[in-house]
Amino acid sequence: MSRQFNVAVVGATGAVGNQILEVLAERNFPIGKLRLLASERSAGDFLEFKDEQVMVEELNNDSFKDIDIALFSAGGERSEKFCPIAAAAGAVCIDNSSAWRMDPEVPLVVPEVNPQDIGQYKTRGIIANPNCSTIQMVVALKPLQDCSPIKRVVVSTYQAVSGSGQKAVDELRIQSGELLNGRPAECKVYPHQIGFNCLPHIDAFLENGYTKEEMKMVNETRKILGDAGIRVTATTVRVPVFYGHSESVNVEFEGPISAARAREVLSQAAGVEVVDDLANNDYPMPIDAAGRDATLVGRIREDESCDNALNLWVVADNVRKGAATNAVQIAEILVAEHL
To answer: Is a pLDDT exceeding 50 seen at residue 240?
Structure first.
């Protein structure tokens, strides 16, 4: 019988935590004991896993005894506190927050892009899961980078409200109903109405005029692709879509790469599905990505304003590939090659 592993899911009652449980079940991850951890207010609740009811326990300093892998999705503050505690207890932490992403001793991993970095977890006992918008972009960029080094990336994102959590999903649903019935929209999650609107504001603004979300894409892309010299600039926008982030990506390369060659390369790339049949109005849309793990790439065309540059339209489910599935894929490589 193949070896099984004791797994803890931290933040199990949240949207990403629930999705992690679904993905673990779907992919038949070799779980021996499953421990679900959350805040005190959720302790004692039950969540379903493979047709069984598993009780949620309160997260505390003693939660990680006998745990092999801890999947964290409970926010940066809890990750900063409890990842070192879990690692000291012998668990390998796969963290979905931004707390550890830029730590030079913590690998930042997208399995289709840099799986070789997973082995670096031994220094701190932590592997970081990148930002959702970064994940889907580098899945599309890496196969092209292997054809010709990337000089510059200009990306504009159109990000679903589920990236802000369930309360934001509810806010869009409620606002849409209110506005369609001629009533004013109440704003609780976002500073402005999100229903039938776009907000060029994701996370806090920084002194340089960018947001934290935008700078995450800049810094994480360089780290994952292993090239600090790539120039990256980002504008991130929240749009009235429930699930699925979309991105307009302009990429400048050191040498020429045609749209036809890019289509060929991407059609053979792991985790990528090319959707690019303009004659039939076939291109990536968030409604097609929702509930799936593939990164959809289309509108592939040469940039007529710049030599050696391409435009791409990249779409993926931000809760699955952008969070839960990526974390579970990391765990699969971890158990197959390192534990």
So the answer is: yes
pLDDT value at residue 1: 43
Would you say 224 and 130 are in contact if contact means Cβ atoms under 8 Å apart? yes
Q: Select from 252, 267, 225, 260 the least CA-distant residue to 311.
A: 252
Catalytic residue, from 187, 198, 245, 306: name it: 245
Question: Under DSSP, is residue 246 helix (H, G, I), strand (E, B) or coil?
Answer: strand
pLDDT of res. 260: 98
**pLDDT band at residue 2, thresholds of 50, 70 and 90?**
confident
For the chain, domains (ranges, CATH) are 5-130+323-337 (3.40.50.720), 133-318 (3.30.360.10)
* Dist. CA 238–CA 244, nearest whole Å: 11
Cβ atoms within 10 Å, residue 16: 26
For residue 130, what are the CA distances in angstroms to 44, 88, 256? 31, 23, 29
Q: Which of 93, 132, 192, 198 is catalytic?
A: 132
pLDDT at residue 100, as a whole number: 97
Asked if 306 is an active-site residue, the reply is no
Verify whether residue 245 is a known catalytic residue.
yes
pLDDT tens readout for residues 127-153: 999 999 999 999 999 999 999 999 999
CB count within 10 Å of CB 266 equals: 23
